[in-house]
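debug: dumping io for the single-chain case to check the tokenizer round-trip. Nothing else runs in this session.
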Amino acid sequence: MFKKFNHRFVYKYPLIWNTKIVPIALIAVVFHLLFFVVGYQNAIVHSVQVHSYYNQESNAITINLFAVLLSVLVFIIWCVLYFRNNAFKAFYPKNNSAIFKEWFLVLGVCIVTFSYALSSIIGSNVQTRNAVSYKEALKNCETISKASLFLHGSYKEGQYTHEKKEGKVVSVKRDSFAFEGRNYSLKSLMNKNISSFPLFDSKQDSLRRLQMQRWMKEDKKDSVAMVLENYMALMEQHKLKVNISAPQWLDLVYDYPEFTNYFVIGKQEREFQYAFENQENESIDVTKEGSISVKDTVSTTIKNINGENYVYSKYYVSDKALTDYYTAIAVSWDNYLLGSDYIMMILYLSVLFSLMVLSFRVTSARNWLIGLIALGVIQIVFGIGTAFFGSGITYYILFLIYFGVISVYFAIVYSGKRGKKWSGIALNHILWLSPVVGLIVYNLIMDLVKEYSGYYQKYDLQTGKKVEEFPKIDWFEENQLLIFQVNLLLVVFFIFLFSRIIKGWRGIPED
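debug: decoded output
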């Protein structure tokens, strides 16, 4: 029965049968489901307190590497089965769009085969999103960010500020900074940084920090206390270790109006000494006694365990574990289930491999192999030329010159119809290089425009301030994804037109 069905399928849908897209699609469904489940399981956090994100990331890399190897293996097996029947080499009757249709099916095979790893990423993001809703993640990240101002961390304003005197920018040392008409010590809590999450941009972070500063300046102790209460509620919800309560925390750090006399609340019970100290700004002078500031010895103790120095905080909360957990959640909610960069990488990789398969089908193994070796040699020459001239645009120019030369050569051979000569190799190179021609042209134009418009001089080197705006260039810089998408559409359109030329080229006699 199966043989009968297969026989009828061959005659009724020869293109689909020849590309083996049905069995490869079934295999893809199985493997995509498998990697989705594996990625989902790997992202499960059983305990926020002890979960190792390093191990999770390491496992994810291993899963993705295995997915890539499996994709390569399936692709090779498919190629062996696919190349057994070459309609072009057997001179089967083909209409003008047959080559394009077959390439499009091959492209589909490449996409579903090379994207196994994406399913594990989707599974991981789905699990992470299921753990905490977007609304809850937004609220909790804001609470953690606000409360971080009262934890051990770095300062925002540095010890030196830049001022312009007699036309020159000079560094001026200071021990305080101004905030809304009042000076505060650089070591004041008013100068502390806050934690940031991917759900917020820099403007939102600044406004949140400003709100906390104003509450402190206006002595809105109840508002600050509410933030700490909400933070401690998160600690209890996730069963994290703490050794203080919210009221105790407030008493230890709230020192209106100067906010300079406070205990340092640790972000975990203990951490390596160098990691602890690197969280403070080196630009602020702090009197040292050994390796810990005199003020900090009240809040911390150094212990040597197995030759390693650890800083133990007298008062601590498990902020690091909580922040790591909500950072992972924020990352999953900040993007789509699958990042656009991953999608574009798979699409371009699939286009490249599908064109290599197509070129093998329409030319010959000899031309394909010679073309591959020749392209490698040419790229080495381009690299040497770029290094010799020392200019980034040299490669772009050499690439476009070469692409133009082989295109003209192919056109001459095609129009003459007196023999293929070396046009098979040229055809291979045209197909392989076509996905990046548009991007090369775009980068060349952008580099030239930036060079001659003064774009690279838009900042004052002394003050670091922007002195000139380039809105059109900035728009292109901010919309790189759109450029890649448009280029892909142009490549598909080019293959649609060029496939008809390939069909005519196949009819040219060999030398």
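debug: round-trip ok. The radius of gyration is 31 Å.
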